[in-house]
Amino acid sequence: MSHYTSLRVGDVLPVEGRWRITGQPLDTPEWYALRVRGESKAKAKLEFAEVEVAYPVERDVKFKNGQRVERLKPVIPGLIYAKFRAAPMWHVLKERGIITGVVCRDQTPIILPPDIIRRVMGLPTEAERLAAAKAELLRVREGDKARILSGPLAGMVVDVRSMRGSRVWWAAGFVKGEAEINGVERILPLAP
Predict the structure, then answer these.
(1) Which of 13, 53, 97, 178 has the fewest CB atoms within 10 Å distance of its CB?
(2) β-bridge mates for residue 63, sequence order
(3) 116 membership: H or E segment, kind and range
(4) How many CB atoms lie within 10 A of CB 77?
(5) First CA to last CA across the chain, in angstroms?
């Protein structure tokens, strides 16, 4: 305690290792499901320690004294998801009242895959995001070169002239035609 005698009012207290809520840095961040009392308070305390926190919320509308009161409330009360970049020190988190427990299997905290967190939060998974990005990249636009995917002209490379609704009008030399938009695939220009 003697190193505290040199501190003055307004100085920041040094955080000793035994009071930190995280330990050694992890090679890859890990998500955990934490049991808490008061999601927003736990979130604030964890974020102060540079731990990313997420929990799904829904809009709750009530009428109180004739006034419309709208608030966000947790979808799963008492449960938050935290992404630790350093090893969590569970005993310190519990002692400080930040958490009441951790979701475990056989006394071992369960590390959640990031896609589970994205699914819980109502966000697309990594695979879904990649599929959407690929679909957008291959989406046919006017002026594009495209390949016909099915029918007797399958494989033919055409110029997309116009589009309306789900139809595409194309030309390839003197041959002109139309097709369903999902019946043609954009040919990506080669990078220089």
Answers:
(1) 13
(2) 68
(3) helix 114-120
(4) 11
(5) 66
The domain limits of the chain are: 18-125, 138-186
Q: Provide the CATH number for the domain formed by 18-125 in this structure.
A: 3.30.70.940
At residue 164, what is the residue type? R
Q: What is the rounded CA–CA span in Å between residue 134 and residue 16?
A: 49
Answer whether 18-125 and 138-186 agree in fold: no
Residue 28 φ then ψ, to 5°: -130, 140
123 token code pair: 């966000």
Is 43's pLDDT higher than 70? yes
Selection from 80, 81, 82, 86 nearest residue 28 by Cα: 86
Query: Which fold would CATH assign to domain 138-186?
Result: SH3 type barrels. (2.30.30)
pTM of the predicted protein model: 0.60
Mean pLDDT of 153-168: 91
pLDDT over 90 at 18, yes or no: no
The predicted structure's pLDDT at residue 95 = 85
pLDDT value of residue 160: 92
